[in-house]
Amino acid sequence: MDSILVTGNGPLNGQIPIAGAKNACLTLMPATLLSEEPLTLTNAPRLSDIKTMTALLQSLGAEVSSLQDGQVLAMSSHDLTSQTADYEIVRKMRASNLVLGPLLARFGQAVVSLPGGCAIGARPMDLHVEGLEALGAEIELKDGYLHANAPGGLKGAVHEMRFASVGATENIVMAATLAKGTTVLKNAAREPEIVDLVECLRKMGAQISGEGTSTIEIQGVDRLHGATHQVVTDRIELGTYMLAPAMCGGEVELLGGRMALVESFAAKLDAAGVQVEETPKGLKVARKNGRVNAVDVVTEPFPGFPTDLQAQMMALMCTAEGTSVLEERIFENRFMHAPELVRMGANIEVHGGTATVTGVERLKGAPVMATDLRASVSLILAGMAAEGETTVSRVYHLDRGYEHVVRKLEGVGAKIERIKGQ
Ligand code: UD1
Q1: What is the DSSP letter of 232?
Q2: Hey, which of 56, 90, 129, 165 would you mutate to test ligand 1's pocket, going by the most ligand atoms within 8 Å of its Cβ?
Q3: Cis peptide before 38, with omega less than 30 degrees from 0?
Q4: Cβ atoms < 10 Å from Cβ of 129
């Protein structure tokens, strides 16, 4: 298995291009199942999760062509052959569950394995099921698979989610586009990836309003047509690389970044003493002198501080001046990076969903292990700011969500290389 070798060094300078959003692309791809006509996505990120979704769609009979070095995905679901999402593919990635709503809407039936994905909590699917049942689906769990049926088609309904789940919002919105009548989804998630999905669905002929607010209204239509859509910028990749100059010092411009995507995160960086400014090409992040200040963080649904940046923010807080408290409210088991950071000399105490981090002057390089996607990149960031060498093993997690990570960080002066495994 490959590993990443990072040698801590001085300030970073230069530019990093930010890719299209993994999490947007993973919900835009299943949207192809809603229509017989082609859907083309541009600005797609080159990631193993995208390959997994490609394999899943192909297993259903969809055609998916990866063009222009993977940045364009041309898809057609004209001749689907199956409505079953198999465990062998779904277990690799939780987002596979996003085929449930579209298949059910278009065919009145779907069989989807319960998902796997990052080991960061229980991650059930009850909110997806409740929403689709509100639209008239009958869903039962048999042998690890959700069997969903809507023999007479889905019907619009008013439904309030108990929690603003991102995936459940996406599944319910996609399903409602082809339901009879109007659906009002209350307590919907407001993430930019959902806004991006709705913009694409609208290009396909869906009638939707309220995206980006907690109430989304969908007027069902008989059919959706083809479209071309550009995937929104990846705000998590953006936030991750914003932390590179914050941790190592220097000045880095994140090309394609926008403040609106990372407002609550940028506010925390500002409070920590890191400068963030918008430029014509993106966002510029600089840390000039000394250590950053400790800041407290609570993860929340958008527009709150994203859980997907908590591990990386913890890496920054490890060398901050003072003590910070990081509270994880989205996932119950998302501090697996903490013991790895402690191996590098960090002072972290975890109690339930709260981590208390007392900054040390400097971290020290060590062999560490990536435990999930965002944890792996937090260890790379920590290694870049540490004294000596850090080897991060199990980096296959990283390939799920960060394209060309070595090339991008090398480009701004980091000492980082990928070591091929046996
Ligand atoms: C998406 C993102 C993921 C991010 C998360 C929260 C994708 C592909 N992934 O994941 O990177 O960390 O949003 O911002 O977009 N829950 C239930 N029942 C359900 C569904 C969810 O209890 O039916 C719980 C989960 O266990 C978790 C919380 O709700 O504790 C948030 O999950 P959700 O918003 O659904 O995240 P995902 O869509 O899986």
Answers
A1: P
A2: 165
A3: no
A4: 19
Q: What is the DSSP letter of 20?
A: B
Residue 396 has pLDDT above 90, yes or no: no
Using most ligand atoms within 8 A of CB, pick from 49, 93, 120, 123 the residue to mutate for ligand 1: 123
Neighbouring CB atoms inside 10 A of 109's CB total: 16
- Mean pLDDT on 69-93: 94
Domains and CATH numbers, the chain: 3-19+233-419 (3.65.10.10), 22-230 (3.65.10.10)
- pTM across the whole model: 0.96
pLDDT > 70? residue 121: no
Distance between Cα 145 and ligand 1 center (Å): 19
Residue 61, both tokens: 């009979």
For range 247-267, the mean pLDDT: 97
- Catalytic residue list contains 248: no
Summarised one tens digit per residue, pLDDT across range 180-196 is: 999 999 999 999 999 99
Q: Spell 19-44 as b/e; 16+ CB within 10 A means b.
A: bbbbbbbbbbbbbbbbbebbbbbebb
Instruction: Give pLDDT tens digits for 150-189.
Output: 988 999 999 999 999 999 999 999 999 999 999 999 999 9
Residues in the chain: 422
25, 118, 200, 318: which one is catalytic? 118
How many Cα atoms within 13 Å fall on the side-chain side of residue 115? 24
